[in-house]
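Escalation from tier 1.

The customer reports that the assembly of two entities below gives different structure tokens on two consecutive runs. Tier 1 could not reproduce it. I'm attaching the input and our single run for tier 2 to review.
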Amino acid sequence: MLPEAIAAHPLAAALEARLPGAATGGTLENGELVLHIDPARIVEAGRFLKTDHKFIQLTGVTCVDWHPREPRFEIVYLLRSYETNVYLRLKSTVAESIDSVYEIWRSADWYEREIFDLFGVKFHNHPDLRRILMPENWKGHPLRKDYPVHGFKYSYAEPQ
Amino acid sequence: MADIETPAAPYLEETVIDSGTTREMTLNMGPQHPSTHGVLRIVIKLDGEIITDAKADIGYLHTGIEKQCESKTWQQVVPLTDRVDYLSNLSNNLAYCLAVEKLLGLEVPLRAQYFRVMLSEITRINSHLIWLGTSAIDLGAMSVFFYCFREREEILRLFEFFSGQRMMTSYFRIGGLALDAPRGWRKWIKKFLDVMPSRIEMWENLLNENPIFKKRTQGVGFISLEDMLDFGVTGPMLRGAGMKVDLRKDVPYSSYDKFTFDVPTQTSNDVYGRYLVRMEEMKQSLRIIQQCYDGMPEGDWTADAPKIVLPDRERMKTQMEALIYHFKIVTEGFRVPAGDVYQAVESPRGELGYYVVSDGTSKPYRIFMRTPSFGNLQSLAKLFERVPIADSIASLGSMDFVLGDTDR
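Tier 1 run:
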């Protein structure tokens, strides 16, 4: 259920009217609207926002690892409307995989590859899901919270 | 002659499509190539001289800055943001500081805001100068490169005068500036403002009507506006296609709404159009710097927040309270209320955004840098579609990306 303050927001209300239950919550802080979207319906919600509300550009996609909370990965979609100059964030919390939004915004291509590379979240229907920043034979996903900042791959300690 | 068979170079993987005369060739451009302006590898498929497919391979400069940020205190992240886009470091400082200040609910004094605007605009000129010099040298205009770097040297001296550092300035801090502007700054800015208009005119005289430059840039590097928006392109490339977008006007930050300036656009949507847009942007930046120079308010350069901003040395040595705060800030940093925030600024390359997540401790939980180069470079496959390989160099230069910014 959406909190009352969010449900009154025109954008959230329109989304709720078209796709009931897709938005499971939200916040409105610092003038920035955040909507929590059911991960199974992220593509539907994205398409609705692009066609009906002119969010023609996906500014970026990122991920936050809330280890050890389960499900741990929060995928964050940063959207921008050039007509109203409104920033909108969509959040979906997933355990390991989510549908790709590549078919709606092609800019999702590299951003989703980056999340796959650095967090190990898989994207269904992504055309080319490979590592992008790390070497292709790299083991592990560096931006996960259980991946140490240093002392993992190489040891700089003096040999015994 | 025709009978001699030369063995194929091992790095040129040739695949025969047709047993007749047509051959598709795969060509590796980079990672060390002068026109990629960094360490970028592009795998190009060629049909004769026409590019049929191009794939960018990035990540050679990945340094894990986002991971490093998570182990630093909030204020210690500022020097790391310099290293992301090393040609427009102050824009990065600004975006990060604004994001954290938004989370803290901190209001920065007007003097600090004006200095931030002024130095960000000088950064824009600095970054555009590098772009102008390097993309002109790609097209064979050697002298422009030397002239641009001469002026850039002046700007770096100006940065050193303000912050003590030429490139990695870290001059903007959470809560204001690192130091007040040094005495005599007006003289330096005045000199800069006096010299620059004539210099811009000189560069324009060198290139604007240069027949070789025009031949190599006009009608080259076309990519439709719909494709650009779809691929996440921002900044001067959009403005070169006639779209009037500028975050300084659309979503004003750091008192940009107090300044009058125009957003230049061109409708030609080619390399030449992007060149004209950037040249005009430099002139508009000078207008903004002039307004800062004329209307610089007096007062504090840091916010009145003793728990966040370090006290000055004099107070730290004479007042017990200031000493305690100094100790607390230096040893454990300050806490930032839990929450997340996205703050975007118009960097010389486009939309630079910082998505900052705090869990209420003295270290950031996650920092995501939405860098303009990453978004712009994604459109490379489309930009290179069916163009001759000689034109690809001009198109690549017109994107104005920094690989440190792309790979972070």
